[in-house]
Amino acid sequence: MSRSEGSPATERSGAAVLIESAGEIFLERVRLGIELILAGIAVVFVGAFVLYFDEQPYINLVQGFNFAVGAVALRFLHDPTRHAFNHALGFTVYMVTIISAGAAGVLAGDATTPVVICVGLAVISGTLLPWNPWWQLLSVIVITATAIWVVSSTVAAPRLFWLQNVGSIAPTLLSTVFICAALQRQRGAVERAERDRRSREDSLRTANTSLEREIQEHQRTEAALRFAMRELDHRVKNTLATVQSVADQTLRGARSMSDFREAFSGRMRALARIHIALAGRRWEGLRAAELIELVVGPYRQDRESVSIDSDETFLSSELVRVLGMTLHELATNAAKHGALSTKTGRVAISSAIAHNGTPRLHIHWSERDGPPVAAPTYRGFGMILIEEALAYEVNGRVALEFQNHGLHCEIDVPVPRVAV
User: With respect to CATH, is domain 254-414 assigned 3.30.70.120?
Assistant: First the structure.
C-alpha cells in the first residue's frame, strides 16, 4: 500500500466524514440565510405596519406570510444528514421570499426595489450556499419570471418594455450560476484534498500501529530468546554436572573398567532418553506412565515381562530426571540379577497419587518368578542412587525388600502442581 492510498474502509469512512461535514456546512448557511431574511422582513414589516398600516394592508399580509414560512422552516432545519430535505426546504423558503418581494412590489407599484432585492438574493445564494449549480439556475429562472411579472404589472410602457429591465440584470443572474459552479469545483477540490489527507493520515496511523505491534512482537521474541538461552545454559550446566557426578560415582563404585563402561553407558542412555522426551514436551514434564514406559520398557524380555498400571499424574521435569534415574537403576538391577534376567520373570509396576495434604506419588515395584535375591553385601553407586537420590533431591522416601521370590520397592515422592 502506498503512502497516499488507504484501505476501502478507510476511504469510505473519510468520505462519510466529508459528506457529513458538507451537510453541516450547508445546513448552517441555509439557516443563516433564512435568519437574515427574517431579520430584513421584520424591519420592513414593522416599518410598514407602523407607518402605512391603513394604506397597504396586503403588503403586510404578504410579508407576514413570508416571515411565517421562514420561521417554520427554521424549526425543521436541524438534521444535517437529511440532504435532499434540507435542499428542498431551503429552496422553498428562497422561492417564497423572491415571489413575496415581487408581490410586495406589485402591490406597492414599485418595480425597482423587488428587482434589486431579487438580484441581491441571487448573488448571495450563488456565493453563500454550497448547493448544485442546477439549483441556482432554477432560482435564476424563478427570479427572471418574477422580474418580468413585476415590471409588466407596475410600469405603464410598451408591451415588451420589460425586456430592457430583465436584459439589464440577466448577465448578473447568469454569472451567479457560473460562480456557483466554480465554487462547487473549488469545494470539490478541497474535499478531495481533505479526503486524501485523511486517507494518508489513516494509512500512517495504520502503519504506525502495525510497526508498534511488530516492535512489541520483536521485543517479546527477544525476551523469549534470552529466556530460552538462559534456560538452555542452565540445563546444559545441570546436565554436565549430572554427567560428571554419574561418571565420578560410577567410576568410584566400579570394580573394573568393563563394569564402569557398561554401567556408565546404560546410565547415559537412560539420561539421554529422558532428556529427549522432556525436550519434546518443551521441558514441561512427563506423565508417570510415560516415564515408567520410557525407562523400564527397553528391558522387557517379552510382552508380559513388565506390566505397568499408572494414572495420568503429570510430573515436573526435575522430578522426571531424578525419578527416571532411580527407575533405571531398578530396571538395570532386575535385568542383571532379578526377574528380568530370566524369560519367566515378571515385574509389576503401579503408581497412584494420594491427596492427603500435599499430593504425593506412590510407586510400587514388585518382582516375581525370577531367581532368589538377597540383600547385597556391597553397596555400589546404583544402590546408593536408589536409596538416597530421591530423599536428597526431592524429599522422597524409598523402601527396599529383598525377598526370595524377588525384589519389592516402595517409592513415595511429593508431586508439585504442574500446568499441563
Answer: no
